[in-house]
């Protein structure tokens, strides 16, 4: 055990011990940590504090505050001791010159792997080209190899954004743009609504300062009257639902994030009257059935606005988001958006993939439920069919672990599940680079033909050969993660029927078929 903390405090007298945080504060956020968990976190806390003891942040604060806040963000997300430990240590190799061997000796291979992953991601930089943003997001996923690495990186970025105002001005825009274009969409893609909103709203004022001011002014104007209105509507709805036997409910108001509101205002010509969900009423009911029942009850006494009823339970958003949304006219003549969901859907909407890696359970009025499951079910919609009517289309496409999940939804916290999840997320897709460094993601076993069509249909239609890492390969070569592929084209080349057997993606097949048909018709008319 080291005696280190006073070194930090002597150098920066203005920061008290409380500001640095404490091991106790961290472990208190965890759900019944074991003795080993606490011991591990204690060692990491002391190790990181010592490693960074000579360093300060731009704010003048001890560097360790950043490590601590990253660990804390991870604890808040419900991560276990391993991930929190990696979070505390995430900068010790890059910024404190600790060598890998020392980490391996002190904390083992898994934690070293996570730290190295985060360090590697830190080297990928976004330089403002919007058309590269999607490639970069994919590259992030491909390079991280483990979802936990991305989650640590997101927790790190939250604190960096919270302290961005201390960073030299010339760096602020790049970092904030990167956050807005890469990290926030990644959090969204992973279903982590809470991180997505936070990252967007922290970057917004740096990337679009004028627009940010404008949005704030609009929200300020709306604030008070709308909250009062929502409270009244909430009371009425609670009474009506109770009368119909739905009593176990929790309600809350949610205010739309400033950046999300900005994007919507852009789409609606800045006419705030066309936006109905600046404030929304969130109603959490016990079961899926209750969601639909509540919708019926609400519509029977308040007229819904046509075209505004959205059933994201039956048709969830691509990132797994589930809820029923409706916009109703109140008796005061205003409109209010109401969102209906179960506690489980709520947990998934806020924490997404993190809830699958988390060992936390959520206490509701109906007892403890694991805050997981739905996200993954929605990622592979087949599971729903499997559950609801037992008839299953495409059952062959459903990975084994998903089938198991359907049989026993509470099983998801096992190590096995986490392993399978990682595999599924990373192994069903491969990431192939163009010679310019753009990233194309394709299904496993894709060929250069699939790649060529994914780049552009003209390139596919006139492809005469392909090089992988500079070497000519046959068109039926199975591409591997990280391959750099160069497609050679010739104007006179056109697809042949053989290509159809090689192509794997629907997109390539469609283009080949239409080209073959065209050739056939041209031949006939000759
Ligand atoms: Mn960091």
Description:
- The protein is α+β, with helices and mostly antiparallel strands.
- It has three domains: 2-9 and 18-207, Hypothetical protein af1432, CATH 1.10.3210.10; 209-348, Beta Polymerase, domain 2 (2-Layer Sandwich), CATH 3.30.460; 429-524, Beta-grasp domain (Ubiquitin-like (UB roll)).
- The protein is 55% helix and 12% strand.
- It has 25 helices and twelve strands.
- It has helices spanning 5-11, 17-20, 23-28, 35-51, 64-76, 81-88, 92-96, 100-121, 133-144, 147-162, 169-189, 193-207, 209-243, 258-267, 288-301, 343-351, 354-357, 374-379, 382-388, 400-407, 415-427, 448-455, 457-461, 497-502, 506-524, and strands spanning 250-255, 279-285, 310-311, 324-329, 335-342, 361-364, 367-370, 429-433, 439-443, 463-468, 471-473, 485-489.
- Strands 1-2-5-4-3 form a five-stranded mixed β-sheet.
- β4 and β5 form a beta hairpin.
- The longest helix is centred in the middle third of the chain and has 35 residues, at 209-243.
- It is globular, with a radius of gyration of 26 Å.
- It starts with a helix and ends with a helix.
- The model is unreliable at 1-18, 359-406 and 408-414 (pLDDT under 50).
- Manganese (II) ion is lined by residues 66, 90-91, 156.
């Amino acid at each position: 055990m080291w005696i280190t903390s006073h070194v930090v405090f002597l150098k920066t007298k203005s920061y008290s011990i409380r500001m640095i945080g404490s091991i106790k504060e961290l472990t208190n956020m965890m759900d019944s940590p074991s003795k080993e968990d606490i011991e591990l976190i204690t060692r990491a806390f002391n190790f990181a504090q010592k490693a960074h003891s000579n360093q300060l942040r731009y704010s003048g604060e001890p560097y360790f505050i950043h490590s601590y806040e990253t660990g804390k963000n991870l604890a808040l997300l419900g991560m276990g001791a391993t991930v929190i430990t990696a979070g505390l240590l995430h900068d010790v190799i890059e910024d404190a010159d600790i060598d890998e061997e020392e980490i391996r000796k002190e904390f083992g291979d898994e934690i070293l792997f996570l730290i190295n992953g985060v360090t590697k991601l830190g080297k990928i930089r976004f330089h403002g080209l919007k058309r590269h943003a999607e490639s970069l997001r994919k590259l992030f996923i491909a390079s991280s190899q483990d979802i936990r690495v991305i989650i640590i990186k997101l927790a790190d970025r939250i604190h960096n954004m919270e302290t961005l105002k201390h960073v030299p001005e010339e760096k602020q825009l790049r970092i904030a743009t990167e956050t807005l274009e890469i990290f926030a969409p990644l959090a969204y893609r992973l279903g982590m609504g809470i991180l997505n909103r936070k990252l967007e709203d922290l970057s917004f004022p740096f990337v679009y300062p004028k627009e940010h001011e404008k949005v704030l002014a609009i929200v300020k104007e709306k604030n008070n009257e709308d909250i009062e209105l929502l409270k009244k509507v909430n009371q009425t709805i609670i009474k009506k639902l109770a009368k119909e036997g739905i009593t176990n409910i929790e309600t809350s108001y949610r205010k739309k994030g400033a950046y999300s509101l900005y994007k919507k205002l852009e789409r609606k010509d800045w006419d705030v009257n066309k936006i109905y969900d600046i404030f929304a009423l969130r109603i959490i009911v016990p079961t899926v059935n209750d969601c639909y029942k509540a919708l019926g009850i609400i519509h029977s006494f308040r007229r819904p606005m046509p075209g505004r009823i959205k059933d994201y339970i039956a048709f969830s958003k691509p990132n797994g988001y589930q809820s029923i949304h409706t916009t109703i006219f109140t008796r005061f003549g205003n409109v209010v958006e109401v969102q209906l969901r179960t506690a489980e859907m709520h947990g998934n909407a806020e924490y997404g993939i993190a809830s699958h890696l988390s060992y936390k359970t959520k206490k509701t009025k109906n007892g403890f439920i694991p805050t997981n499951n739905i996200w993954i079910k929605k990622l592979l919609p087949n599971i729903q069919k499997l559950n609801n009517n037992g008839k299953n289309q495409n059952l062959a496409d459903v990975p084994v672990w998903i089938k198991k999940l359907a049989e026993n939804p509470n099983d998801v916290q096992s190590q096995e599940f986490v392993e399978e999840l990682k595999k599924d997320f990373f192994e069903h897709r491969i990431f192939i680079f163009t010679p310019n460094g753009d990233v194309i993601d394709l299904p496993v076993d894709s060929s250069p033909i699939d790649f060529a069509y994914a780049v552009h249909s003209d390139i596919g239609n006139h492809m005469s050969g392909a090089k992988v890492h500079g070497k000519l390969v046959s068109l039926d070569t199975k591409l591997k993660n990280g391959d750099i592929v160069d497609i050679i084209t010739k104007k006179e080349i056109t697809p042949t029927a053989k290509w159809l057997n090689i192509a794997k993606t629907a997109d390539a097949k469609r283009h080949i078929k239409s080209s073959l048909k065209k050739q056939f018709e041209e031949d006939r008319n000759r």
